[in-house]
Amino acid sequence: MLLYSDIITGDHIVSDGFPMQLVDDVVFQVGCMSDEDEDGDGAVDSFVHHFRLQPVTFDKSGYQSQLSGYMKAVKLYLTASGAGAHEVTAFEKGASAYAKKISANFGSYEFYTGASRSPDGMVGLLSHHSDGVTPYFTFWKHGLRAEQV
């Protein structure tokens, strides 16, 4: 199994034990529900508890400011880790485009940090699919480090 940690804080964020879908090559949408879950609320509570995610509140400008700082830190990490210029540019363009989608639907998200509650770390976004029932989290692909456990 793969366990994914935030590259900035080291907080465990998600594992591949949950359904993960790569979207726009920049974020993972991660389903919270398992086969045993009967409703979305219980699944979210279980997911949040399992990864010790912490709820946090943002207004739109506060989130945009946090995200801007986080994206700069991810870019520095990619560069320091030897990512090529093409990969860094692709990240910047993809992240910018996806951030616009988030901004356009800002009111439909709840926000969660990792266990450390670090203001510099990744903020996961909780939302629901178009059915209004099925919850999922969104996490930034380039901000995660996978480790085999």
What does this structure look like?
The chain has a six-stranded antiparallel sheet with strand order 3-4-8-7-6-5, with helices on one face. The N and C termini lie close together (6 Å). It has three helices and nine strands; from the N terminus they run ββββαβααββββ. The chain is of the alpha+beta class. Helix 2 (60-80) packs antiparallel against helix 3 (85-104). The mean pLDDT is 90.
What is shown here, in short?
By secondary structure, this protein is α+β, with helices and mostly antiparallel strands. Helix content is 35%, strand content 28%.
Number of helices: 3
Shape: globular
Tell me the series of helices and strands, N- to C-terminal: EEEEHEHHEEEE
Query: Quick one: biggest sheet?
Result: 6 strands, antiparallel
**How far apart, in Å, are the first and last alpha carbons?**
6 Å
How much helicity do the residues have? 25-40%
Detail the topology: elements first, then pairings.
Blueprint: E1 2-6, E2 12-15, E3 20-23, E4 27-31, H1 40-50, E5 54-56, H2 60-80, H3 85-104, E6 110-113, E7 123-128, E8 135-140, E9 144-148
Antiparallel strand pairs: 1-2, 1-9, 3-4, 4-8, 5-6, 6-7, 7-8
List keywords for this structure.
globular; alpha+beta; 9 strands; 3-stranded antiparallel beta sheet; 6-stranded antiparallel beta sheet
